[in-house]
């Protein structure tokens, strides 16, 4: 595992919870609630119907299945065998067709460079030792002119208070220890990684949570959670 761009402790953490991935009242409730937002945003930027799409760090397949439901030909990769088992099992219930593989983004890029119209890597970069390596792999996997989407957490006092203290310990939206603040990534860092990987930034947008209404929304506030749309030049 040391040769992979992966943290064994992070993989174990999500593997231990994998059986609860599709329970909308479980620790993955936030993913279920933000999925329509991120899915709609991606589809607005590039119509997914008929596209070849890869979800990097797909976990139990929430986003991957959503994109398949919109007509995309979807592949999903992850390094958690348990999460992939749950993802494959859920296909029997949903009826969608997603090709799941246990492989790293870097290794898959060696096999499938320039293959995909759309590459998504959501809520993953803050869990790997070398996010720049993952970003470079995502760039290689996209076709010339292809679109690459990322989402992660900003690194500042507000994000620490909201995403760690608030979400994990006060509101209990996530299990304690889900996030490690030092691994959060500033938008300036993410855009630099993307630029170094040959990706052009198209749009940066924030994802916010209102604890009073318990509603997530997309907007201009990128202080905590944010999403980035990039494109590989033709």
Question: How would you describe the overall organization of this protein?
Answer:
The chain has 234 residues and is of the alpha/beta class. Helices cover 39% and strands 25% of the residues. The protein contains eight helices and eight strands. The protein has helices at residues 8-17, 29-45, 62-69, 81-94, 105-112, 131-141, 157-170, 187-196, and strands at 52-56, 73-78, 98-102, 116-122, 142-153, 200-210, 215-219, 225-231. An eight-stranded mixed beta sheet has the order 3-2-1-4-5-8-6-7, with helices on both faces. Helix 2 (29-45) crosses helix 3, helix 5 packs parallel to helix 6 (131-141) and helix 6 (131-141) packs across helix 8 (187-196). The radius of gyration is 16 Å and the shape is globular. The chain starts with 7 loop residues before the first helix and ends with a strand.
Main sheet summary: 8 strands, mixed
Strand content of the residues, in percent? 15-25%
Distance between the termini: 35 Å
Low-confidence stretches: none
Strand runs, count: 8
Taken in chain order, the helices and strands follow as HHEHEHEHEHEHHEEE
Gyration radius, in Å:
16 Å
Helix content: 25-40%
Return the structural class: alpha/beta
Mean pLDDT: 92
Strand order, main sheet: write it out: 3-2-1-4-5-8-6-7
The coarse overall form would be globular
User: What's the number of helices?
Assistant: 8
């Amino acid at each position: 595992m040391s040769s992979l761009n992966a943290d064994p402790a992070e993989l174990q953490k999500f593997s231990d919870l994998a059986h609860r991935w599709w329970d909308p009242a479980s620790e993955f409730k936030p993913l279920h609630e933000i999925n329509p937002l991120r899915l709609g945003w991606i589809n607005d930027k590039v119509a997914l119907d008929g596209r070849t799409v890869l979800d990097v760090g797909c976990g139990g397949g929430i986003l991957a299945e959503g994109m398949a439901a919109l007509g995309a030909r979807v592949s999903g990769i992850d390094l958690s065998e348990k999460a992939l088992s749950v993802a494959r099992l859920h296909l029997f219930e949903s009826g969608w067709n997603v090709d799941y593989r246990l492989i790293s983004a870097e290794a898959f890029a060696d096999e499938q460079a320039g293959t995909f119209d759309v590459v998504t890597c959501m809520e993953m970069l803050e869990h790997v030792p070398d996010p720049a390596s993952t970003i470079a792999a995502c760039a290689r996997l996209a076709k010339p002119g292809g679109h690459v989407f990322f989402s992660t957490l900003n690194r500042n006092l507000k994000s620490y208070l909201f995403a760690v203290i608030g979400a994990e310990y006060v509101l209990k939206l996530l299990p304690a220890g889900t996030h490690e603040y030092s691994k959060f990534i500033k938008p300036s860092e993410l855009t630099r990684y993307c630029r170094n990987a040959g990706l052009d930034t198209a749009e940066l947008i924030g994802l916010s949570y209102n604890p009073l209404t318990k509603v997530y929304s997309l907007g201009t506030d990128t202080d905590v959670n944010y999403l980035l749309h990039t494109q590989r030049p033709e």
